[in-house]
Structures are given as C-alpha cells and as structure tokens.
Amino acid sequence: MAYRRTEKTERRLAEVRERIVSAAWAVVAKSGFEAASVSAVAERAGLSAGGIYRHFPSRGALLTEVFERASGHELGVLASVAAPVPAPVAASDGGVRERLARVIATFARRALDGRRLAYALIAEPVDPSVDAARLEYRRRYRDLFAGLVREGVAAGELPPQNPELTGAALVGAVAECLVGPLAPEHDHGDDESLIANVTKLALNVTGVTADVG
User: Fold this and answer.
1) Considering the chain, what percentage of its residues have pLDDT values greater than 70?
2) How many Å apart are CA 20 and CA 45, to the nearest integer?
3) Is 194 helix (H, G, I), strand (E, B) or coil?
4) Residue 211 burial (CB < 10 Å; 0-12/13-18/19+)?
5) What are the CA-CA distances from residue 106 to residues 12, 169, 174, 199 (Å)?
6) Whether the predicted pLDDT of 92 surpasses 60
7) In 3D, which of 81, 127, 123, 128 has the Cα closest to residue 102?
8) Any coiled-coil ranges, and where (predicted)?
9) Domains of the chain by range and CATH?
C-alpha cells in the first residue's frame, strides 16, 4: 500500500515551503537574486540546504516562485488602480487617461520605494527559468495597459491606435526609464520629479500631450 500523507503532515510541509519562499523573497528584496543562494536562503529560513531541495528541485525553481509571487502581487496592485471607479465617484475621477496616469505613477512610486526588489524583478540578470517568467509578466503588464488604451480609444479619450502595441511600448518605456534610477549603485535623486516625468512620457506614448492629474 502506497504511503499517504496525513492532513497534519501536508500542513506542516506547506508551512515549511512558505517559510522557504518568504526567506528567499527577503534575501532578494535586500540583495537581489544573485545573493539568494541556497545556503543563504536556508540560513534565513532556519533549515539545511537539503531541506530546501526537499521542497524545490532547484535554486531556479525557488527563485522563479519568488519572482512570480512578487510580480503577481505588484500586478494585482496595479490592476486595482486601473479598475473603473464606481459611480458617483466616477463622475469626478477624470476618466481613462487619469486612471492610466495613476497606474504609471503607482508603478514608478512602488518601484522607487522598494528599489532593490524592483531592480531584481525588472533588470537583474537571472536564471533562464526566472527570465521566462519575467517575459510572461511583461506580457501581463502589456495586457493591463492595452486594456486601458482600448477603453480610452473606445471612449474617444485617446486617439485611434493599436492597444497591444501601445501597451508593449508603455511597458518598455516605463521599465527602461526606471532601470538606471533603480540600479544599486545609483544615487537617489528627486523621486517625485522622476515619477511625474515618467508618467508624462508614458501618457505621450498614448497620444496624450496635456498634463493630467
């Protein structure tokens, strides 16, 4: 008869797995993916290296899990910012262009508030499996922006354009603008000015030339 894990055992294993992911996330947030060696994660989690491998087949698999969770969390925050505002508040929220501006500003501000993690997620050289996840999340960000652009075009707030192409351009433009300021060796400057300029540039990509918000 095959061994069947008890509910208590499954719960304990899940708790240990979560502890490993949390430890790896903390290391990446502080020092980047390169610093998140199996031994560093194991030490922070209070486990042996072997204990890590009992839950993840490789370091790449663990770091991919961290990347997906961190990126998924950030994408969820932006999706909530992008969501239409219910009436009667919607009457004063200014429409799609203002929501798009808030999404861009929120993305930039959160990245600058958590520079090391943001740099790791956006630009740090990574394991191929993490890089594949990064490409997938870039597509998801593109789709989020494309949805707003499509809505803006339909409402007459934005000029006619290809939403997917503009969405991809927004992801690339915003990420590229932030890579330098997020780099570990970069001196912190005027974050609010940077956020305002990145937001204005991103809106220009969609055909919005007037100041918004």
Assistant:
1) 92
2) 6
3) helix
4) exposed
5) 37, 18, 12, 9
6) no
7) 81
8) none
9) 1-56 (1.10.10), 63-205 (1.10.357.10)
